[in-house]
Design goal:
With 369 residues, the protein is an alpha+beta fold. The protein has three domains: 62 residues, Orthogonal Bundle (Helix Hairpins); 166 residues, Heat shock protein DnaJ, cysteine-rich domain (Chaperone, DNAj Protein, Chain A, Ribbon), CATH 2.10.230; 90 residues, HSP40/DNAj peptide-binding domain. 23% of the residues lie in helices and 28% in strands. Helix 2 packs antiparallel against helix 3. It is elongated and about 105 Å long. It starts with a helix and ends with a helix. The structure holds zinc ion (2 copies). One zinc ion (ZN) binds next to loops.
């Protein structure tokens, strides 16, 4: 957790939008790299402002202490809560692959390490994180531009609702684990091609805790976790691009050993749109106009992402001309600006002209068109 954006801007948590803006302007002026300021500090300030000046992000931040942070986000160079997919790193947790074989060398090695540090595997086991989950999240083009909350259902290993993860019936006392006598681990002699090892492994009964509840939770039968379908709400920030990954901390699988839950990684797939396509922060669309509109000019209505816009087609517009509507493109993730809507003009020539139109065209021809 995260950064205190209020502190970065030197303002109170209940500051008004105006106060936030003032504080940002003052600090941005002071730390601007072009004026010899501290660049890292400047980036912090900009990030803080970007979150706190946006009502939606600010309330999310106030509520959860962070805005959905980046997958594998390193440092603070990416503001806005997520990053481009380039630097993405998948963390499979520390459990590693556990095959079904009789002998797992890595297990032994780990347990030796555990013993070497005097932990006997016990402390480590307790910190074991739940598994991360990866999902694919399809988002219609419009929603990728304007931000959206996605409700999803996710079947996963979750903390038991009855015992809240303890594995004991509510109110049950605990007793020393009979399998490991409270040590949290069990020893086993193992012969391998390298010689004979004493293998110390985490107690399968108490998973390292050393204690068991006297009465086992009847819902999860003492495991503390259960397979359950959970409803999740994923907030997709505006301007998200196809291929980006959202990390939702703590929404992966519950930990078997009472540790923190894993994380959820949502791979975003922005679905193609019939009309719009994205190029950087700009949105491109085509606009068919009539020959007469191209020659005479006109005012037309265009259905942009945000709704209808009046667009002026200038006199003498050519096929292929781009009419630019400023600020109606996609939101830039690291600033609060938007790209433009680029309207590419197509001039429609009638496929079947009436006698009269042909006559008019003859006149045009005489005029040299
Ligand atoms: Zn339970
Ligand atoms: Zn035990």
């Amino acid at each position: 957790m995260a950064k205190d954006y209020y502190k970065m801007l030197g303002i109170a948590r209940n500051s008004s939008k105006d106060e936030i803006k003032k504080a940002y302007r003052k600090l941005a002026h002071q730390y601007h790299p072009d004026k010899g300021g501290d660049e890292a500090r400047f980036k912090e300030i900009s990030e803080a402002y970007q979150i706190l000046s946006d009502d939606q992000k600010r309330s999310q931040y106030d509520q959860f202490g962070s805005v959905f942070e980046a997958a594998g986000r390193g440092g603070d160079q990416h503001s806005g809560g997520f990053q481009w997919p380039g630097g993405f790193r998948v963390d499979f947790g520390e459990q590693g692959p556990n095959g079904g074989g009789d002998f797992d060398f890595s297990d032994i090695f780990e347990d030796f390490l555990g013993m070497g540090f005097g932990g006997g595997g016990r402390a480590r086991t307790h910190e074991r994180k739940g598994k991360d989950i990866q999902i694919d999240l399809e988002i219609p083009f419009e929603e990728s531009i304007l931000s959206v909350k996605k409700d999803i259902e996710l079947g996963k290993l979750s903390r038991c609702t009855r015992c809240n993860g303890s594995g004991g019936e509510p109110g049950s006392k605990t007793k020393t684990c009979a399998t490991c006598q409270g040590k949290g681990n069990v020893q086993k002699n193992q012969r391998t091609f390298l010689g004979s090892f004493t293998q110390v492994s985490t107690c399968p009964e108490c998973l390292g805790a050393g204690t068991r509840p006297e009465t086992v939770c009847q819902q999860c039968r003492g495991k503390g976790v259960e397979q359950r379908v959970e409803q999740l709400e994923i907030f997709v920030p505006r301007g998200i691009r196809d291929g980006e990954i959202l990390k939702i901390t703590g929404k992966g699988e519950a930990s078997l050993a009472g540790g923190v839950a894993g994380d959820l990684y949502a791979h975003v797939h922005v679905l193609p749109h019939k009309v719009f396509r994205r190029q950087g922060e700009d949105i491109i669309m085509q606009l068919p106009i009539k020959l007469s509109q191209a020659i005479l000019g006109d005012s037309v209505e265009v259905h942009a992402i945000d709704g209808a816009i009046k667009l002026k087609v200038p006199e003498g517009t050519q096929a292929g001309d781009i009419l630019k509507v400023r600020g109606k493109g996609a939101y830039h993730p690291s600033s609060y600006g938007r790209g433009d809507l680029l309207v590419e003009v197509k001039v429609e020539v009638p496929r079947k002209a009436s006698r009269k139109v042909k006559g008019l065209a003859e006149d045009l021809k005489k005029e040299g068109f």
